[in-house]
Give the backbone structure.
Amino acid sequence: MFTPLDEQELARRCSQGDRLAEDELYKRYAARVYTLCRRYLGDDEEAKDLMQESLIQALEKIQTFNGSKGSLYGWICRIAINKALNQIKRKRWRTVSLDAWAQDTIPEPTEEEMETIPEEMLLEWISQLPDLRRAVFNLYCIDGYSHREIGKMLGISEKGSAGVLAKARKQLKETIRRYLTGQES
Amino acid sequence: MRKWEDIVKDKLEGYESNLPEDSLAAFNARRATAGSTKAKRFPLVWAIVPALAAGLAAVLLLRKPTVPENGIQIIPQPVEVYGQVDDSLDTATPPATEPLIAQAVRTKAGRPMPKTEQSKEPAVTTVAEEIRIPEDTPIPETEDIGPQDTPEGPATDSHPVVRESSPFVPQPSAEKPAVRVNMGTGGAIAAGGGLLAALATQLARADLRPLLPRDHDTDGPNNTNSIDIINGLETTHSHRMPLVVGLSVKFPVTDKIGITTGLEYSLYSSSFSYPSGEKTQLVHYLGIPVRLDWTFVSSRWMDAYLGAGVKGDLCLGATLDGKSIGKDGPAFRLLGAGGIQFNATRNLGLFVEPEVSWTLPSDRWMLSTYSSEHPWMFTVATGVRINLGK
């Protein structure tokens, strides 16, 4: 019976140019990396391109992967996130919202309400955020980076990162609330 | 109770978007394209430098070597020299009216000049004095001059002095290389092939002689006593280290491998002492070095590297006491170097570079210089280097 390769073995075989192992790596991680790219870029085509670029780079540099420092998926994710941020930075934060300083009085969605929302909808709403907000929200809320790390990655201050996150949260909450209100009615 | 952002995280972290069925095939196709695109970058870089080197090699090989037909300048010497020759040679006769030099120039030697019999250029000058040729004497054509005109008496075709010792004897045309470098289609291949052909030709033409026999070198590397085999005069010569200046350019091939090339001007200075006085010989060369460098230490501020390659030197001209004595043949050298480069900017660096070179033996040389006497040379170069595409 076929036994799935562990990450270290998969990486080793990929570094030896084993074509089957490379295909296995793609099948194992491509969909998740594609989701990550959609979250960061907000555009399906761009996300597909970025996913492919990230996996190609991962395969080219796979001999540098060290299993003792983290998972293979985490390593590929970092490659994809770095590439996504570079792409976003090239756009120079082209979208800026004018309601930045509006007070956040929207009630937070409850756990039960959130469970009713499909993942695809969440992805869609995140992708509609402006570039910088989307990046900061993804980095902080989903991928677990601190504001200090985000500041370094995006070339902004810690406070700036926190401010951007607050705006992203508010905008996303509004969208969720609208969706939930529509569902009720 | 969990925050709504945490629920978003949990939902999306493990979520896998649907990919099209042919996404793996598209990925593999893109990967293959990316690989082939990357591989295409190297031949372009490799083609430029060999093309330059092959161009130089073609010029050097197809060019007429040594002294041009009208390139001999006879330098008058004091008359006393004749007297000395007269004493040493029984065959001395009254000053000849026919210019021996002209005969030497146009005589087609049957074989390459052996190194052991090559004398210094000033020796020919001495012959000129001996036969007292005025500077303005017109040089007759080849057919008009017979071997019987030599001052040593009746000469034959095998006379060693005239045919084999004069540095101005041109190489027989039959030995001219038939290498042609095609710089058109397939330039990279032709260029590389041309360079290899040039080197191979040089190696094939090189005699299997010792490296230092051209001068009768027994006293030391820089100051040598030798016997002028034409008239038995004892001469002393000294060669100074060459002065080399140039511009160096480095093309990166990979992160650690690069091709270094450029243009170098070299000045070789020598002094020849005769009973009549001292003469200074200056020989000017323009060279193109092509070297493959491996950078083993690299930082923002400094690079350390080792390299090996070849250099072709083309003689621009030579003078003896300010008077032109024609041009020497081309010279090819093998180089080995190590160096440290201090990066002033991203594309500009100051380098210090000890280099060892070996000059390939060749029967195209005519002039005695520091490099002909010292095929192995050690130099320390320093200068400014332009780093392209760093």
